[in-house]
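Reply to dn_fold:

You asked what the input looked like. This is it:
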Amino acid sequence: MASVKRSWSEEDFSCSICLGLFSSPVSTPCGHNFCSTCINKFWDGKVRYKCPICNKIFHPRPDLQVNILLSGMAAEFTKPVTIKKQRCVEPGEVPCDVCTGSQLKAVKSCLVCFTSFCQTHLEPHQRVAQLKKHRLVEPMNRLEDRMCKKHNQLLELFCKTEQECVCQFCTEGDHRSHPHVPLKEVYKVKLAKLGKIEAEVLQMIQERKLKIKEIKDTVELSTKDANREIADGVKVLIDLRRRIEKCSDDFKQTVKEKLKTTEKQAEDLIKELEQEIEDLTNRSLEVKPLSHTKDPLHFLLAFRSLKDPPTTRDWMTVEVRPPSYVGTLRRSLDQLEETLNIESKKLCDAAELKRVQQYEVDVTLDPDTAHPKLILSEDGKQVHDGGSVKKLLDNPKRFTQHIYILTRQNFSSGRFYFEVQVKDKTAWRIGVARESIDRKCQIIVTPETGYWTLYLNKDELLFNNNPAVRLPLRAQLQKVGVFVDYDEGVVSFYDVEARVHIYSATGCTFSEPLYPFLYPGLFNYQGINSVPLIISPVNQPD
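and this is what came back:
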């Protein structure tokens, strides 16, 4: 038999889809040959199945079998290539699109085939002349999304005008006049911006976590305040109940004493009547025999010897009046009301003072704000009028017309409380002032000018307003407590030693920081006002 001369070339055994040597070649009913993987991927997801070469339509989808003869002939052209040991793809890496079963890691992506290849399946692109012309790049996912839909070229540039990714051909066409830069440059800028956004987001998350903690802490504090309020309230109500019970006992005792007085009166009158009855009975027994005497002489002699009749009362004018209870209950209730008003106010004031004292703040006097006549202690807790004006450097914060001083600390939210000892002073002014007060001119101290203060002048106690609010001064004040609820607009003053509420200014509007404020009064006022005002620590009673 004559031998067959081999005249086939490598291109005769190349797949028209991947352009590489056949791998498990199959034949379609129309007689054309393709790699099994290539033709199946070509048909996957299609509704109509046609030959990529002659466009013949098949229905249904052909069941293709490997052409063993063609596979063997194609193997003749396969050159042995040393392939490095390859590993399977891991999360985040690009897989080989050709591998079936366990996918290997892709080493290159082809921008012509739109396919990523492992080292094994990349071999045809390194060997076949036509495939060597394809553009290979580092492995990429979703290659079709990286290609320009208009020019079918890799998107490698960024148009600053349109803010979109473009290919090289785009910059020579529609984007010719637009500035453009490599994607990597934009990537670095955007990545840095993204890092900033990420940091901002993390900061926002942290701020919200802190806000959650703040809200939870507020709820926890509110719960503690509520429990404390209930405990204090119950204590007050129990004390008031004791007062009511005492009033009830006193009322019963008053009624019983009235009844007892009436019963004693009646008992004494009955004893007196019984005694008169006994005396009159004896008189009757003495007189009765004489009334039966017939002898005139004997009658007259015996009548003359009769004793004088017993003294008796005119009982027609004597009566026992039932006691009157009209007004007894009312008077008891009036007395109870007065007692409850006094005691309940006292108890409520004491409980309220105890609550506000928990907002104590540590404040010290600011020498930069002190009028030149004022003398401060080294710890910044005491101040008094020194009597003479010191030469000091000018300071915009310093009071020059009024002998006033502020603290270093200020408050622009929440609540705060401080106490000032005023013992043995005859004049002073204490409270809070807003930051923007006029410190260089003579002013009237009122809330309108930025001051919320309590003022003592000899035996007159005032809240400085327009007009001033006159307040009762029951005894010499020893220590004054000042409480401010910035958010609720409340400034309250307390007699700390007596644990009594003095006055509250409500409905205040605060829009800037508030400073604790002190005025120690003039040095020579009545000769006894030289003692200092002292910012003292809170000392709550048990």
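The first strand starts at residue 25 and ends at 27.
Hope that clears it up.
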